[in-house]
Amino acid sequence: MLVLLPPSETKRDGGVRGASLDLAGLSFTSLSVQRRQVVADVRRLSRSVSGSMAALALGPTQRFEIDRNRTVSTSPVMPALDRYTGVLYDALDVESLDGVAREFAGEHLVVHSALFGLVRGSDPIPAYRLSHDSRLPELSLRRHWREAVTAALVATDCLVIDLRSNSYIALGPAPSSAVAVRVVSEDARGRRIALSHFNKAGKGRFARALVEAGIAHAGVDSLLEWAAGRDIRLDRTEAGVDLVI
User: Fold this and answer.
1) Percent helix, percent strand, percent coil in the chain, to nearest 5
2) pTM for this one?
3) Residue-wise pLDDT tens digits, 49-106
4) How far is CA 10 from CA 31, 53, 88, 185, in A?
5) Under the cellular component aspect of Gene Ontology, which terms does the record hold (predicted)?
6) C-alpha span between 156 and 1 (Å, rounded)
7) 77: Cβ–Cβ under 8 A, 6 or more apart, which residues?
């Protein structure tokens, strides 16, 4: 089982002293060529402050993001699940997981990064700035990642639970057997409303419940049965499942 998460624009600084990016050591080695190309293009872009500000849609207070990209190959690394911050990752709260759950999260939670493609939660990565809609000088991120990411997911031959946003799905659609999760609320008439801000928190809490349970679900039926036993409302739909909160 793989649980696909979107990345976050915000990232924690720091990392393990003396340890830097090892592209060959990241999971999903079939993406190695694509990773090298994107990292190289990001480093080229970082030579130009004005070019980086425009390509990465940075504001005046975000020039530090250019320095992050300039040193992306040599700066300290930390596990991906520790690197990302923001609403989803605050709700996931990996720091408070016990050792068993943390190990499960490192193996089964996968972040879809615009810079690295797919990375497992335990993969060590540096701080960087690159979003799904960033405009690199020599690469279209969508064309660059789309087929390669999908092929990597198909090759895993396991249940994929897709919690990504549409913008990252566009960088690599999951296989047809994947379970797409939509976070919704339900009004008094039973009408469902897709959520925005609470969507991220709901996905973070759901991912945490999955890793705390420590069950590598083999299929949708197993997932739904588990959710019912945990009083988590998952309803099957034509497009996947609705997580009702």
Assistant:
1) 45, 15, 40
2) 0.94
3) 999 999 999 999 999 999 999 999 999 999 999 999 999 999 999 999 999 999 999 9
4) 24, 16, 11, 27
5) cytosol
6) 9
7) 15, 16, 19, 20, 21, 124, 125, 126
